[in-house]
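ok new one. same drill as before - structure tokens go in, u give me an amino acid for every spot. 426 of them this time. try not to just spam alanines like last time pls lmao
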């Protein structure tokens, strides 16, 4: 067995031998005091602006930012690189790790506890409980949350809609009506990037829009085999596959931000993507409500699929390095940073009680829906963005969804069998 896992979707956590060796490698940590190496995958226009805000915040505290950016939307490439760095005993100070993966990393004993910082700054009071729980391992904080992204969004170019005489859809049936009109007008109705995490991002929106919040929970969070193989799932798969003819021929392999650029330029009418897409519109100087519109993905207005970005802190040796790391955690939770970062990133602050007056209507809607959906039981973890299930099961489901999207031969029934067995992946 190789000590360094390479395939992008193979979970590190399936390589116990490598992990067993970790303790003896020892983590070397930072080269000098005050330097914080931060792994992330924020390399698109909007993402890079947001990452720059993080860098500036840390530098303002007198520390040195060492950028460890690994390009690739959704972070699969970044996770592969992180695993090899950790296995070779050279962990960064902080890494963008999210959702149940935080627990997987913590179980390996490589993450540092940041309870003292969290207690001193009252994180338990400043964070929604659902978020605080994700940041803790056995009751101890091991990560700091950055923001809340809503994933179930539809981004649309209103000028293109107007030209085609179409209306921004609120249901899947309306979507297909609009898509036909847009196609006739000579525009690509749906901008898509054929990478597996983008296929899954679209799929989970269809699961939610067609099946509703309870079905989403059963199928994509509890991985209930009866839900994964059900009449509702069949309807979901058929609806999902109906979208493909409305995408363009060059979709395969396209990066998500290039798909967003198609909507910005009016080459395509819509994109289904989390609100990091808004960061691209904003970075391109576009104004929400005028140059682009945001709407909940069809049929999902009352629900909210969340994606919380967070940084896990790795165990470091030098005291100065640990101090810099804690300063980073403090900076991330500060009201100023929470605001500046999300204004660039397209997200909303994760810290409770912050004013939203500098934010646009998309963010205000997101903020209101986050609260309302938490009350009504339709605040749901995004499967495609590492929030819902352990990474191995997510990878297996992601593979099936992309196979189904790309194959001309796989029936919805075949796909359901494969989904049910992928759901059993440990
Ligand atoms: C998500 C991540 C976002 C955004 C997106 C595209 O998984 O949480 O912050 O960067 O990928 O890269």
């Amino acid at each position: 067995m190789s000590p360094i896992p390479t395939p992008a979707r193979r979970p590190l956590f399936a390589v116990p031998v490598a992990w067993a060796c970790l303790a003896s490698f020892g983590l070397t940590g930072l080269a000098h005091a005050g330097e914080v190496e931060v792994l992330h995958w924020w390399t698109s226009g909007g993402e890079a602006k947001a990452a720059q805000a993080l860098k500036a915040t840390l530098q303002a505290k007198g520390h040195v930012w060492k950028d460890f950016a690994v390009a690739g939307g959704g972070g699969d490439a970044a996770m592969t690189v992180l695993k090899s760095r950790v296995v070779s005993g050279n962990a960064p100070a902080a890494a963008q790790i999210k959702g149940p993966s935080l627990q997987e990393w913590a179980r390996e004993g490589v993450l540092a506890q940041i309870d003292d910082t969290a207690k001193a700054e009252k994180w338990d009071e400043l964070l929604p409980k659902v978020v605080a729980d994700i940041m803790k391992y056995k009751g101890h904080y091991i990560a700091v949350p950055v923001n809340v992204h809503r994933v179930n969004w539809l981004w649309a170019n209103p000028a293109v809609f107007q030209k085609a005489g179409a209306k921004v859809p609120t249901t899947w049936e309306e979507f297909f009506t609009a898509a036909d009109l847009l196609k006739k007008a000579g525009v690509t109705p749906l901008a898509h990037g054929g990478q597996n995490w983008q296929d899954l991002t679209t799929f989970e929106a269809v699961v939610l829009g067609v099946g509703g919040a309870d079905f989403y929970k059963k199928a994509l969070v509890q991985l209930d085999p009866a839900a994964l193989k059900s009449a509702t799932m069949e309807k979901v798969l058929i609806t999902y596959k109906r979208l493909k003819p409305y995408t363009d021929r060059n979709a395969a392999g396209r990066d998500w931000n290039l798909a967003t650029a198609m909507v910005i330029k009016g080459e395509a009418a819509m994109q289904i993507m989390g609100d990091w897409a808004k960061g691209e519109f904003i970075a391109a100087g576009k104004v929400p409500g005028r140059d682009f519109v945001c709407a909940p993905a069809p049929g999902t207005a009352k629900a909210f699929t969340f994606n919380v970005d967070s940084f896990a802190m790795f165990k470091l040796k030098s005291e100065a390095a640990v101090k810099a790391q804690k300063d980073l955690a403090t900076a991330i939770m500060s009201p100023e940073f929470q605001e500046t970062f999300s204004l660039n990133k397209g997200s909303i602050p994760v810290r409770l009680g912050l004013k939203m007056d500098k934010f646009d209507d998309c963010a205000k809607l997101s903020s209101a829906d986050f609260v309302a959906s938490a009350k009504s039981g339709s605040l749901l973890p995004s499967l495609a963005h590492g929030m819902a299930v352990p990474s191995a099961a997510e990878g297996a489901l992601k593979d099936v969804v992309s196979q189904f999207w790309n194959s001309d031969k796989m029936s919805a029934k075949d796909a359901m069998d494969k989904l049910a067995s992928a759901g059993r992946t440990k």
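The longest strand covers residues 304-313. and btw Residues 151-305+384-422 form a domain with the D-Maltodextrin-Binding Protein; domain 2 fold (CATH 3.40.190.10).
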